[in-house]
Design brief:
This protein has 196 residues and is an alpha/beta fold. The chain has one domain (18-195): Vaccinia Virus protein VP39 (Rossmann fold), CATH 3.40.50.150. Helix content is 26%, strand content 33%. The strands form two sheets. Strands 5-4-3-6-7-9-8 form a seven-stranded mixed beta sheet, with helices on both faces. Strands 1-2 form a two-stranded antiparallel ribbon.
Length: 196
């Protein structure tokens, strides 16, 4: 068990739960500049440590936190109880598969993006070019994003970015780069996505 502090939050993370790293911090910093308190709905795909949903909780009336991993789901339930997140619903799902026919004002996804021959580690492995799961996410996104809603998506320079941008345009989504950070031999990028 590893303890992790972030501002007002203390997380106890087992080895099965992806810890907040540079990608998480870049997303958190980006969202901090974007969030405005509202009565809107928020969906986080791939919640992992839960820190992004925790950060979002005061800003949204409804929070749905999704992860494919049962270990993460159990961790999120403990966090929900610890911080009394009455506006949060936790769902085990492969991307949107267990989400009912519902649209959201804000969707956040910090995906598995590491290039890998096979997807063995669910929290990090993104397929051969690191964008296999990202492309699946984008293809489904329009069905779950409200008109005038926004999505924040993390991608890496190690992914096939041209293919990602093509998929966004193909699905009639517009995007802008709102944050980026160089770490070691890659660049992490936060895209803000909306319908056209």
């Amino acid at each position: 068990m590893v303890q992790f502090n972030y501002k007002d939050f203390l997380l106890n993370l087992s080895k099965e739960v992806y810890p907040p790293l540079e990608d998480t911090f870049l997303m958190l910093d980006s969202l901090e500049k974007e969030f405005v308190k509202s009565d809107k709905s928020f969906l986080e795909i791939g919640s992992g440590s839960g820190i992004i949903s925790l950060k979002a909780s005061p800003f949204f009336k409804k929070i749905i936190s999704v992860d494919i991993d049962e270990n993460v789901i159990n961790h999120l339930k403990l966090l929900k109880e610890k911080y009394s997140l009455k506006n949060q619903t936790i769902i085990q799902s492969d991307l949107f598969s267990a989400i009912e026919d519902e649209k959201f004002d804000c969707i956040v996804f910090n995906p598995p993006y590491v290039p890998s021959e096979e997807i063995e580690v669910l929290s990090t492995d993104g397929g051969r070019e690191g964008n296999e799961i990202i492309l699946r996410f984008i293809s489904q996104l329009p069905h779950f994003l409200k008109e005038n809603g926004v999505c924040y998506l993390l991608v890496s320079s190690h992914n096939n970015l041209d293919e990602i941008y093509f998929e966004l345009k193909y699905n009639k989504l517009k995007y802008q780069l709102i944050s980026e950070k160089n770490i070691f031999f890659e660049k992490l990028i936060i895209l803000k996505i909306s319908d056209q």
